[in-house]
Amino acid sequence: MFVLGITAGVVLGVAVFDLVPEALELAHDYWSPRALVGFVAVGLGFYMLLDRALRQATWLPTGWRTHLGPATLTMHSLMDGMGIGIAFQISADAGWLIALAVLTHDIADGVNTVSLCLAARSESAARRWLVLNGLAPLLGVVLGLGIAVPPAMLAPLMAGFAGVFIYIGACELLPRSYALDPRMRTTLASIAGMMMMFIVTSIAH
User: What's the distance, CA 186 to chain centroid?
Assistant: First the structure.
């Protein structure tokens, strides 16, 4: 599917062009680049274990795995909102700049959330997760304003989410989109999705 191909590229683009650079910026004197790459691997490995364990969990309700990807994207939106709240604790200017960046790429998160649900053929889940994904940044702002997150933990969290998104994009969405439509346009759509996120994140930052 053409749209699924774009979504795969966007998810990979968010990981490579947004989350990893943001983690490196937040690391400061707390973590080395090598350690952050390790956290990316931890995020990827953890999500892979969770995903494959759920495939074999026959005791779970049917369709449970449909919600795994959207839940991860919603958690990312919640973290984005917390970033806004924390930035406002530093200064109003920093808060507004972070808010602009978050709102820009959270639109893509909403699209990806719906696409993941539709790929699993669940329109009702798509509607519910879209609402939750839209509310998550607002809740995150409230939490960010009221909770002091240790600065040393922000970079590992971002790097871990990057690993999760790399797995979702490379191991789930890319193979699924190509299996549904093996023509070259699907591959070009994925590349276009990554290029779009490069442009969006460059402007936002």
Answer: 21
